[in-house]
Design brief:
alpha/beta, two-stranded antiparallel sheet, 8% strand
């Protein structure tokens, strides 16, 4: 999009959210986003109120008033429902003007490593993922499952859901199970005590495990009692526990089966007991391993399931503009043809192109080689495959075939969860040209 054209809805939402967050430290609420979208679509307050099943007075004098006040303060000029689009267009033009100055002195590029910071302009929303999460986290006893291969944006989305929950004055507990020491996973009792201890400390509550733990009744019942009778009883607000990289427990099938079944039980308890309605769970997982779980005990078939989609052309074009790359649609399509819409692969390319490290043609030529910008990513994938020879063999068959292939379901599931293949019914192809070229050469 040029500086003279109109902002898309996605660009409008990202710009307003970034401006408001920088000014207030908080993102827009769900209903503020809905009112903003209605205004962007040219709807009257009456039309917006009817769509949201709210009173016109509430939408106009409460939500609308707060929204335009926040935006006015963030922009440094008075903004109304009638004038906000022009005000945002001027702000966008200012930002475009700034990025025409050499990168080294004008714009702080972000190397795409780890989660995208909350205030980063380089975070691209994938509607309706964010709004669906914000709505779900408000529901008593809710369970959100965010699934996607590594570097697809699971943790970045997770952080935004937690930031939204914080705005609701919920208590937050964050856990990344990859960071736990291996000895923690040696038995279920040790793991659940470690889990309860971490939750207690993050809630600033004195750990009282020994007061509630009873080996005679077992660690699962003890853990449940500790939560219900101690942790949840002491909270005056709702509690959100996020479990990032929950795949770490998949390497310990017996422990995983019991722990995941416990999460499912807690989610279901919310329909029976008031105290459990305070608890919300968010699970982020790559599912790069496959374990068999009883369908009635698995948390992976309840709650809100979210599989992270690839970036589309418009989202990639927006990112290119944010990197001050005045690309044509054809240039965007060239990069997309090589790496698909993989968020990390897209951002890594744009980062180097914005720094003028390569031309687009040079980057694409070297992309599937060890001299290219994706060498670290490709070597990591190759290392994972070499630890699982049956998957390596299956992928070799896929990338060297001239036609889609069919494989055993568990193998397909694992390759898909690693982001290496694309599924169209039972037909399997490489997920992008980068993987086709690289793995056809480097897999034995």
């Amino acid at each position: 999009m040029s500086a003279e054209s109109e902002l898309s809805w996605e660009q409008t939402q990202n710009l307003v959210n970034t401006l408001v967050f920088k000014h207030t430290g908080k993102h827009l609420s769900d209903i503020e986003i809905e009112v903003l979208r209605g205004a962007w679509e040219g709807k009257s307050y009456e039309g917006i109120a009817a769509q949201l099943v709210r009173s016109v007075s509430y939408i106009n004098k409460d939500v609308g008033y707060r929204l335009w006040k926040k935006l006015s303060e963030a922009l440094g000029e008075e903004v109304t429902k009638k004038s906000f689009r022009q005000a945002l267009k001027r702000e966008w033009q200012k930002q475009i003007a700034v990025t025409t100055v050499p990168v080294s002195t004008a714009i702080a590029l972000e190397f795409p490593e780890g989660p995208v910071p909350l205030d980063s302009p380089f975070y691209v929303e994938r509607p309706p993922l964010e709004s669906d999460c914000y709505k779900e986290i408000l529901k008593p006893g809710s369970l959100i499952r965010i699934r996607g291969p590594k570097q697809m944006g699971k943790t970045s989305l997770l952080h935004r859901v937690l930031a939204y929950a914080t705005q609701q004055n919920y208590q937050i507990v964050r856990m990344n199970l990859r960071k736990a020491e291996k000895t923690i996973f040696t038995n279920l009792n040790k793991f659940l005590r470690w889990f309860c201890l971490n939750v207690s400390r993050q809630l600033n509550l004195e750990p009282k495990l020994d007061d509630y733990w009873d080996e005679e009744i077992g660690s699962k019942v003890s853990c449940t009692g500790y939560f219900e009778t101690y942790l949840l009883e002491h909270l005056e607000t709702n509690l959100v526990i996020s479990l990032d990289e929950i795949d770490a427990v998949f390497n310990y099938p017996d422990l995983a089966e019991d722990f995941l079944a416990l999460l499912r039980e807690w989610h279901e308890e919310a329909t029976l007991q008031e105290s459990w309605r305070k608890l919300r769970l968010i699970i982020a997982h790559s599912t790069e391993a496959y374990i068999s779980l009883n369908i009635h005990q698995s948390p992976f078939n309840v709650g809100l399931p979210l599989k992270l989609p690839l970036f589309n052309l418009q989202q990639i074009q927006t990112l290119a503009e944010l990197h001050n790359l005045n690309w044509t649609v054809e240039e965007t399509q060239l990069l997309t043809a090589m790496v698909g819409g993989h968020p990390y692969l897209i951002r890594l390319a744009l980062y180097h192109l914005a720094r003028h490290d390569f031309t687009l043609q040079q980057l694409l030529q070297d992309a599937p080689t060890h001299a290219g910008v994706y060498s670290d990513h490709l070597r990591r994938c190759l290392g994972n495959l070499k630890q699982q020879p049956e998957l390596a063999c299956a992928l070799k068959q896929i990338v060297t075939s001239q036609h889609p292939v069919q494989l055993e379901s568990v193998t397909v599931y694992q390759l898909d969860s690693m982001g290496l293949v694309h599924l169209n019914g039972n037909q399997i192809t490489p997920s992008c040209e980068l993987y086709r070229q690289y793995f056809s050469v480097n897999l034995a």
